[in-house]
Design brief:
Helices cover 9% and strands 22% of the residues. The protein contains two helices and eight strands.
Length: 204
């Protein structure tokens, strides 16, 4: 997540050309409002979830609550990573640093610049049954196998992202909260984005 990628999606998108992909910009400037603490690890977390169980993420934000169903059975490594970071409090205090109405809202970066992460990368994980539909929760990346902590939620179907970003959940409640997130470009907007207060993981 620390490096950028050329915008590769335009050739795959139906006309008109879609907005830029949910990936970080090249060599972004330092964040003017860094998170109060930075949790970092040297390697992805070991597998700790049970892929046969149901996992739900409750994301409390300054705009309200969003509830996501996580696809542990289909993409266990990706869900395990998100669950680990949430349980460590990694996402608490981070923001939706990039929000493009009609496209997606991106978060999960402790620096708020689009270039931060947990200190490690892990590989892509795709399932043919998981597509970028409305309300899809998916991993932002800087190219193949560069997943870290950043994620995005789609406002509308974005099929040109299928096979490029790992889908690992869907919005079950809170579409009004998603649509209320403040539009923001981290390269142009000095004020922080809407804040994530807490991410609660439920296991059943």
């Amino acid at each position: 997540m620390l490096l950028a990628v050329p915008f590769l999606l335009a050739a795959c998108a139906p006309p008109p050309t879609p907005p830029p992909p949910p990936t970080p910009p090249p060599q972004p400037p330092p964040s003017p409002t860094p998170a109060p603490r930075a949790l970092r690890w040297n390697a992805p977390p070991p597998m700790s979830i049970d892929s046969n169980k149901k996992y739900t993420a409750i994301v409390e934000t300054t705009k309200g609550r969003m509830v996501f169903e996580l696809f542990a059975k289909e993409v266990p490594r990706t869900v395990n990573n998100f669950v680990f970071l949430a349980r460590q409090g990694f996402y608490n205090g981070t923001t939706f640093h990039r929000v493009i109405p009609g496209f997606m809202a991106q978060g999960g970066d402790p620096t708020g610049t689009g270039a931060g992460g947990p200190g490690y990368n892990f590989g892509d994980e795709f399932s043919p049954s998981l597509k970028h539909d409305t309300g899809t929760l998916s991993m932002a990346n800087a190219g193949p196998n560069t997943n870290g902590s950043q994620f995005f939620v789609t406002f509308a179907p974005t099929p040109w992202l299928d096979g490029k970003h790992s889908v690992f959940g869907r919005l079950a409640q809170g579409v009004d909260v998603l649509r209320s997130l403040t539009p923001r470009d981290p390269a142009r907007t000095p004020t922080p984005g809407d804040k994530i207060l807490n991410v609660i993981i439920q296991e059943q």
